[in-house]
Amino acid sequence: MRTGSGFxxxxxxxxxxxxxNDRFCADEQLQELRAETLRPARGRVLEIGFGTGLNLPHYxxxxxxxxxxxxxxxxxERARPRIAAAGLPVEAIGGGAEAIxxxxxxxxxxxxxxxxxTVADPVRALAELRRLLRPGGRLxxxxxxLAPEPGVARWQRRLNRLxxxxxxxxxxxxxxxxxxxxxxxxxxTLRRFYAPGIPRTHGWLTLGCARPTAS
Length: 215
Ligand SMILES: C[S@@+](CC[C@H](N)C(=O)[O-])C[C@H]1O[C@@H](n2cnc3c(N)ncnc32)[C@H](O)[C@@H]1O
What we know:
By secondary structure, this protein is of the alpha/beta class. The chain is 39% helix and 26% strand. The protein has one domain: Vaccinia Virus protein VP39 (Rossmann fold).
């Protein structure tokens, strides 16, 4: 599959991949993990890689509004019925998490679920989230990434090219917690584990809540 082809960037990316996302990222285990991740969310929330809106049912009552950053219009299209059912004001922003047209310190909570694997420049995206969080705000994360076992990590690197094509830019080998630390956040809670029933190359998860450190 040529990733530059019209089939890939059109039909596959805008129609097939959103369907795949709903098919593979909405099972019971992931629903529970989404709920655990989003429990501390409150106030004005920024969610990057909003996708098809699978997080929406898991936001707690303390959330007042949501700004959804999503570059793939096909993903957002599939999210519409979930937005209508959520009873939460949602403002959509196209484009990437690397440059979000919002003023500094305008959010109480930032959310990234299964997205730092895919953004083209995770360091720039994390710098944006740091800029956009108010002092004392929280970054909530649920991400897959580079496994600690060398054998698994070797397979992650081998499979990465295929993964990037099939899952529209997703990388298996990003060291999520290190990226977050290195971008000026301190974890308040951090859980790293293999999700049962998911191949280890895809199932090393980082679930946590981090706050920006004082600059
Ligand atoms: C694996 S999907 C996860 C979607 C959703 N967060 C979920 O948990 O179901 C990754 C998402 O990141 C989005 N994405 C890709 N590049 C991005 C970028 N630069 N900034 C923000 N989101 C991006 C994709 O369009 C896709 O919706």
